[in-house]
Amino acid sequence: MTFEDQLAEGEAVPVEGWDFSWFEGRATEERPPWGYSRLLGERMAAAAAGLDLQTGGGEVLAGIPKPPQVLAATEGWPPNVEVARKTLAPLGGQVVEAEYDAPLPFPDESFDLVSSRHPIANPWREIARVLRPGGTFLSQQIGAGTVRELKEFFLGPQDYGDWTPDVLRVEAEAVGLRVERLEPAKLRMEFFDLAAVVHFLRKVIWIVPGFEVRKYRDELAELHRMIETDGKFVAHSRRVLVEAVKPGHTFG
């Protein structure tokens, strides 16, 4: 495919939802060692009431084998809300439109489990408020500097500050949660064509904020030449698994 063909294809793929199956054969990402989907399924099966924050299109939550009696999710982007409602309907999941930094529309101590995969931010006080005593917050977080190789190709060197996974521990403990597991991972990513890069940057909008093909056409042309020469563009994602418990009696 020509440079122009790849730009057109990357721009044409819909970005709604959080399904990455389109990338099969065009990009790869090493999976974290802890198996988040498996952990989520186990925790949800053991819970009486579960809440998934910033659920995207609900694709990850929909993979749980056994939903709790009460299952809810929040999402802030309207197109994803409708996708999530359709995706989670077979599980009896209720999807509520709520911004990531807004108060959660649920009463105190409503859930045994609160989960979130790749949240934009963590509403720690709200998480602690809606958890029942003994309840758990389970999350796979995006680490600072994730996909920095791609980000810096377009934006130049970046300052990622002094963020470390321990910041999550401090934030969780500040609202009374007890962190029981905190595990970072650095994972290899490979992009095999330019269309995959374009679609990725349109879908994961925080990597290159304000990304548009016309704005970065020169950089994309150079990246296309690099991929054709090397066969791939290599980057690394950074992930952190967090499990934190609200002190008190366990549910059940």
Question: What CATH first level would be assigned?
Answer: Alpha Beta
Termini separation comes to 57 Å
Provide the spatial order of strands within the biggest beta sheet: 1-7-8-6-5-2-3-4
The quaternary organization reads as single chain
Q: Which regions contain 5 or more consecutive residues with pLDDT less than 50?
A: none
Strand-pairing-aware structural class: alpha/beta
Average of per-residue pLDDT values: 95
Q: Helices and strands, in N-to-C order?
A: HEHEEHEEHEHHEHHE
The radius of gyration computed from the alpha-carbon positions, rounded to a whole number of angstroms, is: 19 Å
CATH architecture: 3-Layer(aba) Sandwich
Structurally, how many domains make up the residues?
Answer: 1
The total of helices stands at 8
Percent range for helical residues? 25-40%
Looking at this structure, what is the CATH superfamily?
Vaccinia Virus protein VP39
Strand elements, count: 8
Sheet with most strands: 8 strands, mixed
**CATH fold descriptor:** Rossmann fold
Protein name: Methyltransferase type 11 domain-containing protein
InterPro entries: 23S_rRNA_MeTrnsfrase_RlmA (IPR052939), Methyltransf_11 (IPR013216), SAM-dependent_MTases_sf (IPR029063)
Domain Methyltransferase type: 51-138
Organism: Amycolatopsis japonica
